[in-house]
Specification:
single chain; mainly alpha
Length: about 300
């Protein structure tokens, strides 16, 4: 049995974005960060992302979306993985993700029953969201709700949840950073959906890009990126003032660099969109690392 198709289906290039929200929540919790808890939270985030990628491969295959789009990078469409095998993998990976999440929760101190229940429910919701983006009769990704789910799970849940596990507290500044992370993660999804706009429209997959059209999709990306950078930077500047002026400038520069590249891509330049997906994901990861370095220094 070859593991190469499974590695391809896992789409490792998406993992830096998947862990960015958890990293941000841990960095904001400094100096109260629990290193072991942070590592387990990162592992859980990776598992959920791989689960989501496998589910997307399976769901789009079952609906015929990848065939109509001529996707040669999806392992079920190419026949390298059988649908029944992928379905079994989804169930097994869901169980592993749930177990990893429970271990992460067990490492948090002083959680009461209510807090534990809310966090556990959030974890179960994350697994559900990872699987149901494209699978099932009413896959929410086909109704233009993918962006909202990404803001919730990559941003609000990941950052606030991780911060709370470390500190057992929440505040508005962390919430704004979580919103910024979510908007930037949605921007990555939107680059993907801009690339697939024509095929998704033909398959009746109503992403925001398909709903808005090519020109509207570009304006929407501008709002996501500038809104995300602002939501990340403003609360940090309020907390630390001039100390965080340099990282704020770097974050905006990365955001503007992406927008400059994005607006230069032709509608049918699929390979250029693939390159931009990688560039934006790594740029967001770099933004979070910049915040982490400065938080450590102060």
């Amino acid at each position: 049995m070859s593991f190469t198709p499974w590695i391809k289906a896992a789409r490792l290039r998406t993992l830096p974005l998947a862990v960015s929200g958890v990293l941000l929540g841990s960095f904001l919790a400094l100096p109260h960060m629990n290193p072991v808890l942070a590592v387990m939270a990162l592992l859980t985030a990776v598992l959920l992302q791989v689960l989501s990628n496998y589910a997307n491969d399976y769901g789009d295959f079952k609906k015929g979306t990848d065939r109509s789009a001529g996707r040669a990078d999806r392992m079920l469409t190419t026949g390298d993985i059988r649908p029944e095998t992928m379905k079994t993998a989804l169930m097994l990976l869901s169980l592993i993700s749930f177990t990893s999440g429970c271990i992460t929760l067990s490492l948090a101190e002083h959680l009461n029953a209510t807090q534990l229940s809310i966090l556990l429910a959030s974890g179960i919701a994350s697994i559900w969201a990872a699987v149901r983006y494209t699978t099932g009769k009413h896959a929410y990704g086909y109704y233009g709700l993918g962006d909202l789910a990404v803001v919730l799970f990559f941003g609000l849940f990941a950052v606030n949840g991780t911060y709370f596990l470390h500190t057992q507290t929440l505040n508005t500044h962390v919430a704004f950073c979580a919103l910024g992370m979510g908007l930037l993660a949605a921007a990555v999804l939107h680059v993907n959906n801009t690339r697939d706009l024509v095929g998704d429209t033909l398959s009746n997959k109503q992403t925001m890009a398909a709903r808005l059209g090519f020109a509207g999709a570009r304006r929407y990306q501008l709002l996501l990126v500038l809104g995300g950078c602002s939501a990340l930077c403003v609360p940090i500047l309020l907390d630390y003032g001039r100390l965080f002026l340099i990282p704020a400038i770097l974050i905006y520069l990365l955001g503007f660099l992406h927008l400059w590249r994005y607006f230069r891509i032709a509608q049918d330049a699929r390979m250029d969109y693939n390159k931009e997906l990688k560039f934006l994901s790594l740029s967001i990861f770099a933004m979070i690392l910049i915040i982490g370095v400065w938080r450590h220094l102060v």
